[in-house]
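Methods — Computational structure assignment.
A single polypeptide chain was analysed. Its primary sequence is given first, followed by the predicted tertiary structure written as structure tokens.
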Amino acid sequence: MPVHILGLSAYYHDSAACLVRDGEILAAVQQERFSRIKHDARFPADAIRTCLDLGGIGVGDLDHVVFYDKPLVKFERLLETYLAYAPRGLPSFLKAMPVWLGEKLFLKDLLRRELTALPGAPAKDALPPLKFASHHQSHAASAFFPSPYERAAVLCMDGVGEWATTSVWLGEGNRLTPQWEIQFPHSLGLLYSAFTYYTGFKVNSGEYKLMGLAPYGEPRYQDLILEHLLALKDDGTFRMDMRYFNYANGLTMTSRAFDKLFGGPPRKPESPITQREMDLAASIQAVTEEVVLRLGRTVHRELGAEQLCLAGGVALNCVANGRLKREGPFRDIWVQPAAGDAGGALGAALSVWHEYLGQPRNGAETGRDRMRGAYLGQAHDNAEIEAFLAEQGAPYRRLDDDTLMPELAGLLDAGQVIGWFQGPMEFGPRALGGRSIIGDPRNREMQSTMNLKIKYRESFRPFAPAVLAEEVSSWFEHQGPSPYMLMVAPVAASRRLPMDPAQHALFGIDQLKVPRSKVPAITHVDYSARLQTVHAETNPRFHRLIATFADRTGCPMVVNTSFNVRGEPIVATPADAYRCFMRTEMDALVLENCLLLKPEQPAVARDDAWQQEFELD
């Protein structure tokens, strides 16, 4: 009989579920896609139901359920921290304790109640055994076990799990051996989040904005950070001066000493972004990259592994990842696409199969990872889509791919923006050609159009190229796959455009006005791009669309951004996609083989009140 393992992450942020059968990842989805609440932390009931449906089983068919965290150990850390900072931590203590005493401290009972409430679930005493992995063990398992390596170093960096904030592991076959860790409150993830907060963005959500803002600034505060906030050793380990931070004992990330050091209070959210915020972003980004590079060199020297696996929220910093790949000592690097807490559900499930049950890993010898391109969610077929469109009274044409792909290439060539919805939904924070908005990267207006008229977000936010894997090295200074949009690489010198002295003299957001390459919509102001290599093996239709566009234009890539507006989770269903299409200025929508053009759709009264539906990130 096959063994079914359900992995869960919940109650902190980015709750998710993952179903593993005999070591194979059958499904993995995030709760936010169904609730439409970004970073939803609640029990992932919808995600569980979807995973079970995709696996063709019920709750009673599960052999093991595993949670990605050890709540009692986390509670111990909270109590020790509050005692260490007493009496300053009293307001934070009083806010946290009711939640812990009411729910989190008795998480096993809570999880059993929630599982029993699922449709078709057995009685509580007939539920499968419930297990708990440690937070960084879940991260490490999510990084190594699906990776294409038989032996690798594993580096996990995030805010904090139970105690660990950075951990190093050695992965060999079906074993993960812990090496050493850095513990709370000293945390690279929380340091980065402190600057996210200070520059006016939302913690656990806006860190990628800080990374995107960094190239517009100069690292003027880098030395200040290293002199006062962070004692960084040559080996990459560090300690933080907690006088400047408030997250351990208060309700904010930074303290008044931090404000004084950097010359003022935090920027108010949604207020204008100034050169100061850009320089702060550049500074903390430079420090983060230096820490990651030093840690990488140390791990390589200590473990002698030629491959490195990364997970934890800091592993979503694709600029640091790119530098580590280009400048670090490793032959190759693999990053878990759902590197944050959502991926912990996957790692916990794989940890039970390989470490608890002692089952071998299969597939690492093939040189390909086991994530199936991260297309691990539900799909919707043409019959279901056509029934939905008929119900909406939405005009469409159903076209086979031989007709559809050339037509879409023509629309892209004409500067139109297309919603692209096909195949299984992606797992993780990036849209990878399943639930994407796409455009022509050669178009100088495309970045502005997508940001302001479709995504309704800040103008500085960069877009990524989805490029044919076989063409990546002819357009970018990059070799090998980057399927999950987690590596930044420079645009090839032969594709760049020269700048005159006046253009070189521009600062800040004014730099956006200058096209940097032959594909300006995806080229950042520092001549870099966040790469997604598209592979025929994992997403044949997306690969075919880009190849058709390349045949027409000579450009083997498209702009790829997630199918949503600011503050909204990525769309999950045809209804989500159609609603987003009609609310924005997208020109066309593809739902599998159904093509919808905006001018042909029923007139809808203009009403921007819907934008209040989603909390701004």
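Note: The radius of gyration is 24 Å.
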